[in-house]
TrEMBL record:
The lineage of its organism: Bacteria, Pseudomonadati, Pseudomonadota, Alphaproteobacteria, Hyphomicrobiales. Residues 1-29 are annotated as: Disordered. The modification N6-(pyridoxal phosphate)lysine is found at K207. This is Cystathionine gamma-synthase. GO terms for molecular function: carbon-sulfur lyase activity; pyridoxal phosphate binding. One of its GO terms (cellular component) is cytoplasm. One of its GO terms (biological process) is transsulfuration. Belongs to the trans-sulfuration enzymes family. Keywords: Pyridoxal phosphate. Its cofactor is pyridoxal 5'-phosphate. Residues 1-12 have a biased composition (Basic and acidic residues). InterPro entries: Cys/Met-Metab_PyrdxlP-dep_enz (IPR000277), PyrdxlP-dep_Trfase (IPR015424), PyrdxlP-dep_Trfase_major (IPR015421), PyrdxlP-dep_Trfase_small (IPR015422).
Length: 387
């Protein structure tokens, strides 16, 4: 029988490898087909032939399978896939109505920051930006601003700050704020924000969940499927229509099959590179929560298990020019934005975000892939030797 993954006691790696629930009981197929139909017929009495098949903006067998798998990984009750990570961010943001307040962690993913600034301004929503890594001051901001939604990113991109999810959630509850965590840089295998008191967890599935840099997607998972926030988000996905395409859902489910292996390798490579770079004479500082020298290492170690993610930032000794020189000399690391793919990427965020962002000119963000560690080390070493 096809296995019900929701009640399964199997480990996440096993559920992932099986694509979230065994073979198709009708055909025995080990992998699911791509459902291409957008609409489904009714019988002579005008009853749907299959009650869960009406129109594919509402639902789709492959979305459901993928969503159930992700909900299980997150220890959540329900998930919804979106057409991109930003479509997922937007659906969550829209739970706040004009006149409401959003408290946003400062210095996080630039797309989220830009979107929320514009969205709040256009819709008469107050936006407060504050450093969530400082629990006491962030807690004060929650108490003073009484937000409807608190948005944090753990670990944050590109500064790799680590917010205390449990600590923040305890301050959200008394004011009735919904706590949403973007855990894209961690993956559900190493960080489960819902277990730490968050209400919602969001991922850009474009990144490590798919892992092959070949689709755009987003996903939100809830701790409580009957909450007002989730009722709204579920309805918004269907009505606003930012649904994932079936081909993308199929690719995502295929990518997820190897998530366990990829995360293990990427996280091990990242930690080894962070340790190597930390003592490198051309490096001023490495920002990576797996390092004992990281400000929030103990907190990260308590919140995460099985690794610290594949994202890190490094500050090279020198200025913007030295950083750009080093980046130009890399051969294995590809110069491109994004993260979480099997291939290692490097980015000079200052060039993208500009001076007003406050990003240091000598900062490089690395997304570490699954390549041989020796090749990654040698590539960084030769590029840094040139500056
Ligand atoms: C990429 C990213 C997003 C946005 O996701 P898209 O799939 O590009 O729309 C949001 N948050 C984080 C942390 C990201 O890295």
């Amino acid at each position: 029988m096809a296995q019900d993954t929701r009640n399964s006691r199997l480990h996440p790696e096993t559920l992932l490898a099986h694509g979230g629930g065994g073979f198709d009981p009708a055909t025995g197929a080990v992998t699911p087909p791509v459902p291409t139909a957008t609409t489904f017929v009714r019988d002579e009495a005008y009853e749907l032939i299959s009650p869960s098949h009406l129109y594919s903006r509402d639902d789709n067998t492959l979305f459901r399978k993928t969503e159930d798998l992700i909900a299980t990984l997150e220890n959540g009750q329900e998930s919804r896939l979106f057409a991109s990570g930003m479509a997922a961010v937007a659906a969550v943001a829209r739970i706040v109505k004009p006149g409401g307040t959003i408290l946003l962690q400062s210095g996080i993913y630039w797309g989220t920051t830009l979107f929320l600034r514009k969205h709040c301004e256009r819709n008469g929503i107050a936006l407060v930006e504050s450093d969530a890594a400082d629990l006491q001051s962030f807690a004060d901001d929650i108490t003073v601003s009484q937000p409807d939604l608190v948005w944090i990113e753990v670990p944050s991109n590109p500064y790799l700050k680590v917010a205390d999810i449990r600590g923040i959630s305890e301050h959200c509850k008394p004011v009735g704020a919904v706590l949403a965590v973007d855990a894209t840089a961690a993956t559900p295998l190493v960080l489960k924000p819902l277990d730490l008191g968050a209400d919602l967890v969001m991922h850009s599935a474009t990144k490590a969940l798919n892992g092959h840099s070949d689709l755009l997607g987003g996903v939100v998972t809830t701790r409580d499927k009957d909450s007002d926030a989730w009722t709204f988000i579920r309805e918004e996905r269907k009505l606003a229509g930012a649904v994932m395409g079936s081909f993308e859902a199929w690719l995502l489910l295929r990518g997820l099959r190897t998530l366990g292996l990829r995360v293990e390798r990427m996280n091990a490579n990242a930690l080894a590179l962070a340790e190597f770079l930390e003592t490198h004479p051309k490096i001023e500082k490495v920002l990576y929560p797996g390092l004992a020298s990281h400000k929030a290492h103990t907190l990260a170690a308590g919140q995460m298990s099985g690794g610290y993610g594949s994202l890190m930032s490094i500050l090279v000794k020198g200025s913007k020019e030295e950083a750009l020189k080093a980046v130009g000399d890399l051969n294995v690391f590809q110069r491109a934005t994004s993260l979480g793919g099997v291939e290692s990427l490097v980015e000079h965020r200052y060039t993208i975000e500009g001076e007003e962002s406050g990003i240091p000119g000598n900062m490089l963000r690395l997304s570490v892939g699954i390549e041989h560690l020796g090749d990654l080390k040698a590539d960084l070493d030769q590029a840094l030797a040139e500056i």
